[in-house]
Input
Amino acid sequence: MTEALMTHETAGEAPSADRPLLQVRGIVKHFPLKGGLFGRSTGTVRAVDGISFDVRKGETLGIVGESGCGKSTTARLLVDLITPDDGEIVFDGRKLGRDLTLTELRRNVQMVFQDSYASLNPRLTLEDSIAFAPAVHGMTDADARRLARELLFKVGLEPKRFAGRYPHEISGGQRQRVNIARALALSPKVVILDEAVSALDKSVEAQVLNLLMDLKAELDLTYVFISHDLNVVRFMSDRVMVMYLGEVAEIGPVDAIYAKPAHPYSRALLASMPSMDPDSRTEAVVLTGDPPNPIDPPSGCRFHTRCGFAEAVCSREKPLLHARAAQGHSAACHVGGVDTGHTLSELPA
Ligand SMILES: Nc1ncnc2c1ncn2[C@@H]1O[C@H](COP(=O)(O)OP(=O)(O)OP(=O)(O)O)[C@@H](O)[C@H]1O
Ligand code: SF4
Ligand SMILES: [Mg+2]
Output
């Protein structure tokens, strides 16, 4: 293994054991909507609206929620592909824009997207694609190529067969392996996987998921895993964050949330999940209709327009994230909160 592949610590900044690797604080991203004859602003899409969470070293944090709830925007904010309107990102104790540069953040936090083809330059060989970023970051051409071949091997593609091929000459699963190799080329600490396996056939998907698990253990990686497939998220994640209309509805250990979700939205989302066990399949599709428009989200609890437990307080006051029974589990719902004014103290079974 070359030095470039080893996980590296910069002198003097050893991470403390219990400090989260990534801390996201009150991050906001609103997209202006342009329209009309003169391209005037006609509104604002509140894609991510003041969310805070931690990613712990060595864990996989799953992010789930319906289409448009802000998962990809959150991911793009984490790697600074888009700039937040407000809030802060702290990596390994260092705040972006204070003692952490954008280059350092991008080297340490890498991303793999769903579209395996669009992410690769069609005119570059697989070896050149993987070697590109390390070469830009100062590695000699020979070292960058050696690293690219090592990474091809690591992601299960025989370098002799694959190094000189082009993206259109390989399958979707193989392309996604190349994208994973590319993401690993700068020895990042965190990899964000945004629907990274969603376009693959089930059997190929399983192989790539296993590869991701192996790489995580071998390279001591931390993952943020975004998927609409709740079974896959359960398989991959240590903790899960449930998003609704640009906010965090619930966050906590995967077992606690899947066994006993504390937020009615998570409950509805999980109830609509196809069970792996045919005997326990239910017809309980609780979640109906589309989420409201993120341009003009509902007042108070954003879920109140679809929630079967909504009371007057829900449209009046925004519920804050509040600790639940399991360690590290919290949910933003007036039910089960302290003195919230909601008549229920817990969700009915
Ligand atoms: N560049 C942009 N300009 C305007 N609106 C945007 C932009 N990017 C995202 N949005 C809007 O922000 C909201 C959140 O989008 P985002 O892509 O983060 O959702 P998502 O949870 O990843 O959805 P999906 O599950 O479909 O991938 C959506 O309403 C989307 O239309
Ligand atoms: S705060 Fe009210 S509307 Fe929101 S999820 Fe809880 S019960 Fe439902
Ligand atoms: Mg998305």
Notes: The first helix runs from residue 71 to 78.
